[in-house]
Write a structure and sequence with these properties.
This protein is of the alpha+beta class and about 425 residues long. The chain contains nine helices and 16 strands. Helix content is about 30%, strand content about 20%.
Length: about 425
């Protein structure tokens, strides 16, 4: 491993970090899965332009926003080291309201239940979120309970910007070229859809899109999406006996047959699931959308087989209905790709340890842009953001942990810079 020379850490301003984060979450960038435009929310472009301006102010003169909303910028290195990508996403999840966020700063958290005035019935406490136990003494930020907070992934953006801010004040801190990329529409699976990864000139990168400290992620689900379409036969219900085929009822029978031990709420750790996410239509035509997730390709294939068998049984039960199943790959588990260069994870784990953290390697029960980037040849594990309860009105972020994440980024880029010598 490279020898790391002792250097004073560039100071990270928690005050400016907090100001940045609050500035970013004020912009509603909720992704719209049904939109035909890209990005799906025009406010993502507004945030992108804001960030490009801030990057230029920090000395990244080439910061730009393309027509799809991707922000790309480079901080030139002061060592002949491999270039590093630092990546976060602009959008927030559509699973909870994201407009009109009213953040609340809870200083010196002492382990109590946090009261969210817009929804006092919600329980945000160590009893419902164990990660808060480790946040005692830290300053926490939540919404007022009527919206999500947007820490996923504006905490990641704030971490990267704060690390760059610290480097601006200490230009001799060793680093190679740093390529900054902010992506739109990650939450709806399109974060790398229009990103020309080849032009980034990267062999590896790090997304800053994780949870609480000191998590590190080098593994995601293997993912597929499925759609079941049912064609029924509609007639007047008063004259329907022996004739009517109700597509909604056909789908209802299929949903009832889904394995109850393979739902998101019945699984954890490395267990996969089949999750129906939406149903639409009527008597004549109905549609069911599902997601399939497992950490192993064989496990994902097995879930697909289960769904295929259920569809076959429903065809037998409703011989007059047209029942069609489509299964589409979504994103891969990035772990197999990362094995090609063990340094990428090893250096991140060493940077965590150097920052005084005991690294905890946690598989992501979801996905990141890093999964698609790794498949495209840019090997990309995931760093923590210091936040939790993502995609919900109970979302929170820790100022202390965000600053610690920025420190990890600084120590990580120094570690890669040492490979040049």
């Amino acid at each position: 491993m490279p020898e790391i020379l002792p250097l004073a850490l560039p100071p990270i301003s928690t005050e400016r970090l907090t100001e940045r984060f609050l500035r970013y979450v004020a912009i509603d960038t909720t992704a719209d899965p049904g939109a035909e435009s890209f990005p799906s929310n025009p406010n993502e472009l507004a945030l992108a332009e804001l960030l490009a301006g801030e990057l230029r102010d920090l000395g990244l003169a080439d910061a730009s926003v393309d027509g799809f909303g991707y922000v790309v910028a480079t901080l030139p290195g002061n060592r002949p080291a491999p270039p590093i990508g630092l990546i976060a996403h602009l959008d927030t999840a559509p699973d909870a309201p994201g407009a009109g966020i009213r953040p609340i700063l809870h200083r010196n958290y002492q382990g109590q239940a946090l009261v969210l005035p817009g929804a006092p019935e919600l329980d945000l406490s160590p009893a419902t979120c164990s990660a808060l136990t480790a946040a005692v003494g830290e300053d926490l930020i939540t919404s007022d309970g009527t919206t999500l907070l947007g820490a996923d992934d504006k905490a990641g953006i704030a971490v990267i910007m704060s690390a760059l801010d610290a480097l601006a004040g200490q230009p001799d801190w060793p680093h190679g070229d740093l390529r900054i990329v902010f992506t739109p529409d990650e939450e709806v699976g399109n974060g790398t859809r229009h990103l020309e990864s080849a032009r980034l000139g990267l062999k590896f990168a790090y997304t800053v899109d994780g949870g609480a400290a000191p998590e590190f992620n080098e593994e995601t689900f293997e993912a597929a999406n499925a759609t079941i379409r049912v064609a029924g036969h509609n007639v007047h219900p008063g004259k329907a006996k022996g004739i009517l085929i109700n597509a909604v009822e056909v789908l209802g029978d299929l949903i009832a047959l889904l394995p109850k031990d393979r739902t998101p709420q019945a699984t954890s750790d490395r267990q996969g699931f089949i999750h129906p996410t939406s149903i639409s239509g009527g008597v004549e035509q109905a549609r069911l959308d599902l997601i399939l997730r497992d950490f192993e390709p064989a496990g994902l294939a097995w879930l697909g087989d289960i769904l295929s068998e259920l569809v076959a049984s429903i065809r037998l039960r409703h011989p007059g209905a047209g029942v069609e199943l489509e299964i589409r790959p979504a994103y891969p588990n990035m772990k197999a790709y990362l094995a090609a260069d063990p340094r990428i994870s090893a250096f991140a784990l060493e940077a965590l340890a150097e920052a005084g953290l005991e690294p905890r390697i946690v598989p992501i029960r979801g996905g990141t842009d890093g999964a698609m980037l790794s498949r495209a040849g840019i090997l990309t594990p995931n760093l923590f953001t210091g936040s939790g309860n993502h995609h919900s009105r109970l979302e929170w972020a820790s100022v202390h942990q965000m600053a610690k994440a920025a420190e990890v980024v600084l120590r990580l880029v120094r570690r890669w810079a040492a490979t040049a010598g």
